[in-house]
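[INFO] parsing input record for Elongation factor P-like protein
[DEBUG] input buffer:
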Amino acid sequence: MLAKDAKPGAILLHLEAPHIIETVHVQSPSARGGNTLYKFRARNLVTQQKADFACKGTDMLAEADFQRREVTLMYSDGDNVHFLDSQDYNQYQLPATDIAEQMQYITENLSGLLAQIYNDECVGLQLPASVELKIIQCDPGVKGNSATSRTKPATLETGAIVQVPEYLKEGEVIKVDTRTGDFLGRA
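[DEBUG] output buffer:
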């Protein structure tokens, strides 16, 4: 793949390890005949470390031998979280500490959850853009609350705390953006 064609979310081989591109910054030349530089910020999918590197637009970048497989949550045993491949029923495990932030949005029946597989080993998860979660605890609404921009904290079924509009109550199902943790609307 040419460096100028690489977009955020692409998975490339950099320094013999798979990296997912998080941001791309294009730096135009100031002199005539100069080359446009593409500066990448990437995250190593195995070690979770950040890496910055720059390339000319015509440089070739190697794509990683990488797969995304749909999985479902099986169980958590404290140290590890176990997932089941929906197609061939392989089991994968990830350390609970590595995916603690993502676990705020994962339920047993979540569809669209993808395991990132590199060399037949699960190295991470990719969440769907939004998930539907049930509110299990929030302050009751007061008569006269309207659909204004006032919010209140609500605890969801996974333990995540999200700011929701005042008119929502316990038991309602809402959509939450998994990238930002923001309330999107009722489900």
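[INFO] Residues 130-186 form a domain with the OB fold (Dihydrolipoamide Acetyltransferase, E2P) fold (CATH 2.40.50.140).
[INFO] shutting down worker
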